[in-house]
Amino acid sequence: MKTLVICSGGLDSVSLAHITAETRELTRLVSFNYGQRHLKELEFAAEAAERLGVPHTVIDLRPVGAALTGSALTDEIDVPDGHYAEETMKITVVPNRNAIMLTVAYGIAAANGDQAVATAVHGGDHFIYPDCRPDFVEAFDKMQRFALDGYADVSLWTPFVHRTKADIVSDGAKHNTPFDRTWSCYKGGEHHCGRCGTCVERREAFDLAGVTDPTVYEDPDFWRQAVANAEAK
What we know:
The protein has 233 residues and is of the alpha/beta class. 41% of the residues lie in helices and 11% in strands. The protein has a single domain, classed as HUPs (Rossmann fold, 3-Layer(aba) Sandwich).
């Protein structure tokens, strides 16, 4: 099945790109610049496209992102440290981000004769991000079928939506994902900070999956205490 992958450059989406390349017909990677402070993630998406031999399109959504105020990913608000599951991570929500990106991706897929759009939303996102939940995924896919009725038949593929981050690491490893060429940290520094929710989640996922983590972290041991603190609550 000809499949477009939405690829941020993060561990999840780059893993999905590699899995798609080996199990389906990967046609292209699509990324979005919405003014995120961790913009360097797009460099890793570009690398993935080159490595997999497919086109890479970056859609400029900076004017849209500027209007979606109140998120630590786009505004001058500190990205919180700690476990990904903590209440503080809600400050990283960009309203309707996935819905906007998926709408654009569906249009690109339809225009190019692709049969599916793949996105790497996973079970760990559900409690924080409304547009990562199974109900949203199912409703969005149904809406898009109406939107393209009679023009194109494009489906939504979300193989991780009921799975964990550790599952993604395990699957990504099986499909030769170069994890050191992925970017997760929301702070966008030279190296992964090791303290923000995405860094803690990333480090914990490798540990749970039993896969060696090649990531360089500024604070490589913080995740253990963050996880312990979350479990104690």
